[in-house]
């Protein structure tokens, strides 16, 4: 009973009681520590928008991005390798950017892949362009050395799509893009980093043609399969003039957007990884790699952002019209009215109606007149397509071929029956005419040849040659030799035949007498057998 009346000596806390000063101090100590730990484990998120190429070349690009430029080795896979979904419309995958020792993860890289520059696909990209992702995004356009004659047209289509997409963003996103433009223009233009710390606040001013058409998002153009340059030189007969022209053209165009340029090969990605990481602001904690420009090795070109200028482009080869190409490119990338994207809706067609069922629409072709050539037409007139004989203005942007309309198979075969019958009748008539002509012309041809030979003999005369100072008639000499041989044959032909017959008879008689003598000869008397 005493235990029942026993009361607890521990203090009880009412639900509404507030913690004391000591508990408050503990919470203030642990909460910042836990927040710091959780924020330290949160990886920086970077985005990469890959445009162009094919599903195969996009996979090659992803392999090159994950390959270390120092030793050309991919980092070891940690656990399951992330899948790559890039077969339909907008693809996606991700990569973890590891440090040099492959121990620490520096950032999480999200990659969005789009191969078709159709304006109908722009609504798929728009949700990923927001104020949170735009400062940490890089746009990559893939070009292939297997088809260098299509590069400028492909660049024009992608720039148009990007500009139409940027115009459709909200005001908050556009403000972020304006801030990005200023940041990107000032990046790497500090004189203090190159000369002395006293000029740290001095910025190098922009030159002519630089950042004339900024997008607000850093841009990088990757020309894949640079090992095909040697094949173009051997099989197509290209020379250094063509390769220099392509490089000057690309550098002039990309200078207007503040873009970088790099040539890569599947076996040697070069400085691609370093270029992408430096553009996105991913820095290694163990090793700092510097970008070094290269415009002399034609298969290892690297043009970092904010490095190029018109003067450097002219040095490569004289006679290149930098100003003219730069001005014409600004006209080429103007957005057609039917490609504009508004309020996230799909672009309208040329007649003002949207595309049915969201089907991709081929990129429109700008009408080009000979009086006013565009930047695209100038490039395609110089770098011709050796695989086709039709003009490039009639090419389809979706399939890179000619748009043709085909008839029904049965209707086509019905038309061909009448055509084949007509051809058969023509062949029969032609064969009959040839046969009749051969019968009528054969005797006349023989008569004509005989007459012609007689005329030639009369015109030339007898064939003579000089033998020991005496002119000898060849025809007469041949005739005499033939007569002499004939007379010899007639004179000596019969006696040898008779002689041969007599000698044969004599031999037979001798043999018969020899064998008959053996038969008639009797046995010898002195032989032991007779005894």
TrEMBL record:
<feature type="region of interest" description="Disordered">
    <location>
        <begin position="1"/>
        <end position="27"/>
    </location>
</feature>
<feature type="compositionally biased region" description="Polar residues">
    <location>
        <begin position="522"/>
        <end position="531"/>
    </location>
</feature>
<feature type="compositionally biased region" description="Polar residues">
    <location>
        <begin position="489"/>
        <end position="503"/>
    </location>
</feature>
<keyword id="KW-0243">Dynein</keyword>
<keyword id="KW-0547">Nucleotide-binding</keyword>
<keyword id="KW-0505">Motor protein</keyword>
<dbReference type="InterPro" id="IPR008467">
    <property type="entry name" value="Dynein1_light_intermed_chain"/>
</dbReference>
<dbReference type="GO" id="GO:0000226">
    <property type="term" value="P:microtubule cytoskeleton organization"/>
</dbReference>
<dbReference type="InterPro" id="IPR022780">
    <property type="entry name" value="Dynein_light_int_chain"/>
</dbReference>
<feature type="region of interest" description="Disordered">
    <location>
        <begin position="340"/>
        <end position="401"/>
    </location>
</feature>
<feature type="region of interest" description="Disordered">
    <location>
        <begin position="482"/>
        <end position="531"/>
    </location>
</feature>
<keyword id="KW-0493">Microtubule</keyword>
<dbReference type="GO" id="GO:0045504">
    <property type="term" value="F:dynein heavy chain binding"/>
</dbReference>
<keyword id="KW-0963">Cytoplasm</keyword>
<keyword id="KW-0206">Cytoskeleton</keyword>
<feature type="compositionally biased region" description="Basic and acidic residues">
    <location>
        <begin position="15"/>
        <end position="27"/>
    </location>
</feature>
<dbReference type="GO" id="GO:0035974">
    <property type="term" value="C:meiotic spindle pole body"/>
</dbReference>
<feature type="region of interest" description="Disordered">
    <location>
        <begin position="63"/>
        <end position="83"/>
    </location>
</feature>
<dbReference type="GO" id="GO:0005524">
    <property type="term" value="F:ATP binding"/>
</dbReference>
<dbReference type="GO" id="GO:0007018">
    <property type="term" value="P:microtubule-based movement"/>
</dbReference>
<dbReference type="GO" id="GO:0005868">
    <property type="term" value="C:cytoplasmic dynein complex"/>
</dbReference>
<dbReference type="Pfam" id="PF05783">
    <property type="entry name" value="DLIC"/>
</dbReference>
<protein>
    <submittedName>
        <fullName>Dynein</fullName>
    </submittedName>
</protein>
<dbReference type="GO" id="GO:0005874">
    <property type="term" value="C:microtubule"/>
</dbReference>
<feature type="compositionally biased region" description="Polar residues">
    <location>
        <begin position="1"/>
        <end position="11"/>
    </location>
</feature>
<keyword id="KW-0067">ATP-binding</keyword>
<keyword id="KW-0813">Transport</keyword>
